[in-house]
Amino acid sequence: MYPKRDLTNGKSLLKRAQQHMPMGVADSYRYWGEDTIFLSEMEGPEIVDVDGNRYVDFRLCYGPIILGYRDPRVDNAVIEQIQNVGSMVGFSLAIESEVCELIKSMCPNIEKLRFANSGTEAVLGAIRTARGYTGRQKVVVIEGGFHGLYDEMMWKSDVENWDSSTAENPEVMPFGAGLTPTSRDLVTLIPLNSKEALEEVFLGEEIAAVIIEPIMGNCGSILATQSYINALREICDKHGTVLIMDEVKTGFRVAKGGVQELYGVHADLTTYAKALGNGYPVAAFGGKARIMDCISLKEGGVVHGGTYTANLVGMAAAKATLEILSETTALQTINEVGAEIQQILMDKFLAYGIPCTFSGPDSMFGIHFSDVVPQNYRDWKETKAELYTTFANHLIELGVMVEPDSREPWFICEAHRNIDMNQLAEKIDVALSRTEGLS
Ligand code: PMP
Question: Per-residue pLDDT averaged across 126-154, rounded?
Answer without folding.
Answer: 98
